[in-house]
Amino acid sequence: MGINAIRSVKTLVRSPDTRVAEFEMDPGAAGEVHLHTAATECCICLCGRVQIKTGSGTVHALSAGDKVGIAAGESHQVINPGATPSRYLVVQYGGAYDFVVG
Questions:
Q1: What pLDDT was estimated at residue 7?
Q2: Which CATH number covers residue 37?
Q3: Does 100 map to a domain?
Q4: Quick one: pLDDT at residue 70?
Q5: Average pLDDT taken over every residue of the chain
Q6: Is 31 part of a structural domain of the chain?
Q7: Is residue 24 within 8 Å of residue 5, measured between CB atoms?
Q8: Angle at CA of residue 34, ends 11 and 6, nearest 5°
Q9: % helix, strand, coil for the chain, step of 5
Q10: Between residues 59 and 3, which one has the greater pLDDT?
Q11: Are 45 and 22 contacting, i.e. CB atoms less than 8 angstroms apart?
Q12: Quick check: 24 and 89 in contact, CB under 8 A?
């Protein structure tokens, strides 16, 4: 899988404690393992397939309409395991946005 194969990111909402963005990811791609220190995250699959792997070893397999919540401070990685591009919405709230790799 290729790291950081995000096709596009559209930020829809940005305020001091809320961020909403739509991502499109290439087939077979994986984002960086990261966490958000203060913001809780909700990931909603819009089309295709998305996997969310957490630091605890849990893998959440999402199809269109499925969602998963990720607590602030929990490391996670977004993966497109499919053969077609995926689109997903990320809603981060409850604290200032940051992106801590690792």
A1: 81
A2: 2.60.120.10
A3: no
A4: 97
A5: 92
A6: yes
A7: no
A8: 45
A9: 0, 60, 40
A10: 59
A11: no
A12: no
